């Protein structure tokens, strides 16, 4: 059979299929995700667990999400949530030590020296700063004698763990790992221990590691620096404007006591949601959860974030001079991910840059060949009013200014005429397929469940969201584009090439 | 013809955690007992269709299906004047339209039916993956056949691809790691295809002429080069005719592609510097080795040895020293490449602020020297081997993973039970065998070290202590 015959048939029949696949706009139907046999357990101390059995390879994915991230920071302690995430791999009172008492004694001496160092730094006494830095370094070397470095990770590695890691975002910190199902109990024992008894050993060396991470992600990365500048320009009040990795000066002043206080405030079991997905026995998992986690005492819930970004009244522009080729980022303030306009905003990003037939990709990359890439996204978080951002990579000799004009022209067309039904159908179909694809991976499912509970207090909401997306109309798109994508509400940030060497 | 390729897995209980960690307010880890893990991996069926090996792994968990295509024939099997054309081929098959369909018509079909495609290329092969809802499988495999066999190489799409590559070349120095890795590759492999980096001379319009594209297409997209894999909610009885139709449309090869030449890797120890004002230096170091992927105790010892040296994350020595102990870097790892037929590389990578660069190199070299001088601790062998043995089940997590691996075995002429052999081989590794392998293959003081970083802040004198310093400018030394 020759292929083109079949394909031509497909093209002819495209319109015909619209009526029967997939569901028409607005149709309410239970999504595949909502049918998953998720068991929700809440322990007496407030810790919530989502347990899901999925037959397959005998492996289990574990994720524990604490409701703390960059938004729970202030200028002066930026980066602390992320730094704490690093420190929670340093072991506990019993894991990672040869002599806890000796370690703690040396920690005290280091921290006293660090307090003096901060004071000397404020006084501008650079000689004293150097002396104290050397003293701290020597004390940390002394403490190393009593430490079993990386023991927490090593125990999991020997058990065959995969993907052991953690991530800190603007509004969450999540620790995750995959284990063979025969080792599941080990996860409970280790995770409960580090929630209850962490020791922040190797603190000063790890602070340097975090500084190196900032250098890698921001200070030698034009894309990272552009993103940081963009958010700092768009958000002047809300902590979405400060970088999760932290500013260098703040990192270099953080103390072990700062981390301990922060940990006490935000790492209570009632501020955590756990997702466990894989080839598991839900009864056994619940039994282990009770056995290991229920002993951890409940904490006071941490303070809410009260900062509200004022309405932006005028376009903001920022230039970043860098030894790099130009980049363009435009952002408009839009409501949070839980707002009723959120589904329309998600559809709008897909209409703009989701795939080769999307409006901006076609106009900027394929037709005018003025750009090599165009992306859009909502962020940097979901819990608070956020940005709809468009990022474009110009293709020389085209400039960021030309691209800006093309983008605004396309947005104007969208505001005036709205998307076509065929465009909307394409996006809806992708949502339907996406709702199946997104439940393929155990760790991906674990993340979805815990994020849905953290944001909406209901694990099913993440799956119901597909219906809300399908219900978006062309009129909704025109309305939100007209409402939010205004000149006064936007922030434009560019990289301007400046050759250093 | 149908074979059943079955990997039987018997995971032996490894007694872990003999150390009785007593967790405060909790239970001792030593009290936890771990049951034996019984698991029989899913079967991969193999069919011969018109001389093409077709692998099938049924997975009825979700209404999805995947098609995996591999054609032998990357740019490494062609001369440099066809480098751009071969590199562009996968993208232009997907995006360049066909005899009867314009590029945007194909986009609309794929996006309307939410069919995901991924086309890529490497030095040895070009690959494609198609993921679809199973109800659209007939459409997807048919369209794939059309894309593969009737490409039009639309001139606008050729220009879009060319422009993207030119822009990518112009932006290479924006990312110091990308600059370091590409320059290091070029330094080591010179004119061999492994060392090729795209440059504007490769991207003249003539390099992507229709004639060039048709030439490479006819030589690569032919039946003798093809391996096909299928997975998902499908059954052979239901799809066999569609697979036969696809293969039938792909003509036999008229000319066999040659084996690529054996590379000669530069082996001139020293410091190679790309001077650039940066807050963080990128360091990559290596020397050639002649240890290949094969069913040989030395290979298994090298894999476990590399895990101990710097491939095993936080359990490895390089990360423990450079990150945990010294606080020099966020990332630091060893690399030991073991190609099937060519020499490979043994070395390490890290990145650190300029003032620490020299000390970071020293720390890595010292860590390597320690493993040359003394065997690793038995506990390190246990950790590395247990990680492989206890984590073995993760090799069978997804059908995609299993099929990709089987296709790799077939393409590399490895036995179908290679993974099982690997498990057995790794279990036989000892402290002594790892030490012997390091003694034979690792030369810590003879590394070629390339650094992208700020010379002024690193200090020429300090760098000279590491070895002779050659400053690179656009690939040349001065």
Could you walk me through the main structural features you see in this protein, from its secondary elements to its overall organization?
The complex is a heterodimer of chains A (501) and B (478). Chain A has 501 residues and is of the alpha+beta class. Chain A folds into 2 domains: 40-97 and 147-293, 2-Layer Sandwich (Cytochrome Bc1 Complex, Chain A, domain 1); 316-497, Cytochrome Bc1 Complex, Chain A, domain 1. In chain A, 47% of the residues lie in helices and 16% in strands. Chain A has 18 helices and 11 strands. Chain A has helices spanning 3-17, 80-87, 100-123, 126-144, 151-158, 184-196, 203-219, 222-234, 248-251, 256-266, 282-293, 342-353, 359-367, 400-417, 421-437, 442-456, 461-470, 474-484, and strands at residues 38-42, 48-53, 59-66, 162-168, 173-180, 272-278, 316-322, 327-334, 371-379, 386-394, 490-497. Residues 1-27 of chain A have low confidence and may be disordered. By secondary structure, chain B is an alpha+beta fold. Chain B folds into 2 domains: 44-249, Cytochrome Bc1 Complex, Chain A, domain 1, CATH 3.30.830; 270-411 and 418-477, Cytochrome Bc1 Complex, Chain A, domain 1 (2-Layer Sandwich), CATH 3.30.830.10. Chain B contains 16 helices and 14 strands. In chain B, the strands form 2 sheets. In chain B, strands 1-2-3-7-4-6-5 form a 7-stranded mixed sheet, with helices on both faces. In chain B, strand 2 (44-49) and strand 3 form a beta hairpin. Chain B starts with a strand and ends with a strand. Mean pLDDT of chain B is 92; it is low at 1-20. Chains A and B meet through helix 1, helix 5, helix 6, helix 7 and helix 13 of A and helix 2, helix 3, helix 4, helix 9 and helix 11 of B.
């Amino acid at each position: 059979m020759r292929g083109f015959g079949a394909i031509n048939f497909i093209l002819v029949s495209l319109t015909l299929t619209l009526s029967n696949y997939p569901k028409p706009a607005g149709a309410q139907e239970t999504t595949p995700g909502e049918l998953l046999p998720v068991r929700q357990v809440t322990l007496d101390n407030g810790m919530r667990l989502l347990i899901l059995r999925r037959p397959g390879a005998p492996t289990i994915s574990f994720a524990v999400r604490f409701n703390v991230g960059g938004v729970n920071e202030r200028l002066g302690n930026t980066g602390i949530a992320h730094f704490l995430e690093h420190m929670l791999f340093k072991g506990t009172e019993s894991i990672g030590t040869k002599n806890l008492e000796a370690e703690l004694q040396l920690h005290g001496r280091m921290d006293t020296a660090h307090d003096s160092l901060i004071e000397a730094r404020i006084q501008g006494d650079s000689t004293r700063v150097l002396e104290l830095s050397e003293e701290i370094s020597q004390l940390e070397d002394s403490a190393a004698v009593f430490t079993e470095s990386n023991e927490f990770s090593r125990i999991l590695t020997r058990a065959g763990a995969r993907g052991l890691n953690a991530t800190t975002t603007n509004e969450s910190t999540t620790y995750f790992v995959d284990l063979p199902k025969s080792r599941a109990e080990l996860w409970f024992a280790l995770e409960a221990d580090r929630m209850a008894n962490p020791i922040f050993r190797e603190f000063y060396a790890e602070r340097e590691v975090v500084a190196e991470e900032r250098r890698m992600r921001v200070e030698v990365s034009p894309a990272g620096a552009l993103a940081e500048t963009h958010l700092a320009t768009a958000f002047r009040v809300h902590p979405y404007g400060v970088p999760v990795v932290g500013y260098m000066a703040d990192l270099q002043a953080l103390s072990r006591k700062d981390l301990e206080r922060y940990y006490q405030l935000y790492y209570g079991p009632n501020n955590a949601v756990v997702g466990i997905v894989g080839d598991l026995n839900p009864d056994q998992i619940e039994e282990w959860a009770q056995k290991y986690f229920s002993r951890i005492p409940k904490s006071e819930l941490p303070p809410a974030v009260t900062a509200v970004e004022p309405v932006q009244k005028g376009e903001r522009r920022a230039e970043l001079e860098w030894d790099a080729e130009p980049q363009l980022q435009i952002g408009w303030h839009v409501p949070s991910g839980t707002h009723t306009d959120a589904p329309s905003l998600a559809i709008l990003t897909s209409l703009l840059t989701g795939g080769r037939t999307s409006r901006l990709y076609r106009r900027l990359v394929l037709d005018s060949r003025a750009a090599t890439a165009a992306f859009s996204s909502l962020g940097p978080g979901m819990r608070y009013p956020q940005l709809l951002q468009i990022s474009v990579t110009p293709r020389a000799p085209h400039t960021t200014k030309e691209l800006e004009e093309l983008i605004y022209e396309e947005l104007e067309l969208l505001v005036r005429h709205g998307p076509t039904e065929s465009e909307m159908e394409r996006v809806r179909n992708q949502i339907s397929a996406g709702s199946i694809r997104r439940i393929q991976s155990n760790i991906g499912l674990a993340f979805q469940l815990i994020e849905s509970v953290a944001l909406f207090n209901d694990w099913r909401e993440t799956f119901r969201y597909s219906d809300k997306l399908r219900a978006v109309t062309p009129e909704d798109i025109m309305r939100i584009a007209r409402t939010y994508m205004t000149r006064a509400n936007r922030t434009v940030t560019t990289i301007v090439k400046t050759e250093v060497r | 013809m149908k074979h059943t390729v079955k990997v039987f897995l018997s995971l032996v209980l490894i007694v872990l955690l003999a150390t009785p960690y007593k967790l405060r307010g909790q239970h001792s880890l030593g009290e936890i007992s771990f049951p034996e893990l019984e698991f029989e991996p899913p079967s991969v069926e193999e069919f011969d269709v018109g001389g093409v090996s077709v692998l099938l792994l049924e997975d009825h968990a979700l209404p999805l299906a995947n098609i995996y295509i591999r054609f032998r024939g990357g740019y490494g099997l062609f001369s440099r004047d066809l480098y751009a054309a071969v590199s562009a081929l996968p993208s232009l098959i997907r995006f360049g339209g066909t005899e009867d369909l314009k590029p945007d018509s194909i986009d609309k079909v794929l996006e309307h039916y939410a069919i995901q495609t991924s086309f890529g290329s490497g030095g040895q092969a070009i690959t494609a993956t198609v993921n679809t809802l199973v109800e659209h499988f007939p459409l997807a495999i048919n369209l794939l056949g059309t894309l593969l066999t009737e490409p039009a190489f639309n001139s606008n799409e050729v220009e879009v691809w060319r422009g993207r590559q030119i822009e990518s070349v112009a932006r290479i120095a924006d990312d110091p790691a990308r600059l370091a890795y590409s320059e290091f590759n070029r330094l080591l492999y010179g004119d061999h295809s492994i060392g090729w980096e795209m440059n504007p001379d490769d991207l003249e319009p003539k390099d992507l002429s229709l004639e060039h594209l048709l030439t490479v297409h006819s030589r690569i997209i032919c039946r003798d080069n093809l391996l096909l894999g299928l997975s998902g909610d499908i059954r052979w009885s239901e799809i066999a005719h569609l697979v036969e139709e696809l293969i039938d449309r792909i003509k036999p090869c008229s000319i066999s592609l040659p084996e690529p030449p054996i590379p000669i890797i530069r082996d001139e120890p020293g410091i190679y510097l790309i001077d650039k004002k940066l807050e963080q230096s990128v360091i990559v170091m290596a020397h050639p080795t002649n240890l290949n992927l094969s069913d040989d105790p030395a290979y298994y010892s090298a894999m476990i040895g590399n895990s101990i040296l710097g491939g095993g994350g936080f359990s490895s020595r390089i990360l423990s020293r450079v990150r945990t102990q010294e606080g020099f870097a966020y990332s630091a790892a060893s690399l030991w490449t073991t190609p099937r037929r060519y020499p490979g590389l043994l070395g390490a990578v890290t990145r650190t602020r300029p003032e620490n660069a020299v000390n970071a190199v020293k720390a890595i070299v010292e860590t390597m020297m320690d493993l040359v001088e003394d065997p690793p601790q038995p506990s390190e062998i246990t950790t590395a081997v247990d990680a492989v043995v206890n984590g073995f089940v993760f090799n069978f997590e997804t059908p995609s993973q299993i099929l990709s691996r089987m296709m790799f075995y077939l393409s590399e002429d490895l036995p179908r039970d290679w993974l099982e052999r690997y498990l057995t081989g790794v279990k036989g590794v000892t402290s002594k065998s790892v030490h012997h392998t390091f003694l034979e293959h690792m030369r810590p003081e003879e590394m070629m070290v390339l650094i992208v970083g700020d010379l002024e802040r690193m200090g020429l004198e300090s760098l000279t202590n590491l070895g002779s310093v050659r400053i690179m400018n656009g690939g040349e030394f001065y």
